[in-house]
Amino acid sequence: MGPVRQLCYVSTANEPASDQHLTEMLGRAKLRNSGAGVTGMLLYVGRNYCQALEGPRAEVRAIFEKIAKDARHRDMHVVLETGGSVRDFPDWSMGFLRGDPATLGLDSAIDLTGVAPSRFERVLGDGGALKSLLKSFYRANH
Ligand SMILES: Cc1cc2nc3c(=O)[nH]c(=O)nc-3n(C[C@H](O)[C@H](O)[C@H](O)COP(=O)(O)O)c2cc1C
Question: Whose CA is nearest to atom 1 of ligand 1?
Fold first, then answer.
């Protein structure tokens, strides 16, 4: 296990999230993440969030625990947790993509809309497919 902890989870928004709401939330999130040395990416697809958080173990854990208590979403499932030496989103304090599953335009797009969170793990396998989706968006934007 290297020093970079990476955690990916999926969850469902309690209310459909507006652009304005997401922009405000992300503004604060990016500030806190940069202070903590945490990077990652958030995908909002259908009513679901998919988020990758990476950085020092304690900081990733602390931010994840804040997010887990957030009443704006529910049914959080960690689909991937790894330790390594490389970050996948090194210069993104929190990248963001609001994706229409139909128009994500990625071969590996996964439509979680309508999928019960308890079944996410079955749909996503070990979470590797989800991480590939987030990474392909990162690569496409560099
Ligand atoms: C889907 C989702 C993702 C979030 N991601 C982050 C994040 O990456 N970093 C962060 O600090 N807060 C994030 N938040 C917000 C936290 O849950 C929490 O609201 C925040 O840390 C509280 O501080 P604030 O009121 O100053 O924003 C996220 C919330 C949601 C619903």
Answer: 49
Task: State how many domains the chain has.
Answer: 1
* Number of residues that make up the chain: 142
The domain spanning residue 51 has which CATH number? Answer: 3.30.70.100
Instruction: Return the axis-axis angle of helices 19-36 and 57-68, rounded to nearest 10°.
Output: 150
Q: What's the pTM?
A: 0.88
Its domain, for residue 24, covers 4-140
Expressed in angstroms and rounded, the spacing between residue 47 Cα and the centre of ligand 1 is 17
Q: List pLDDT tens digits, range 97-127.
A: 887 655 554 444 555 666 666 666 666 666 7
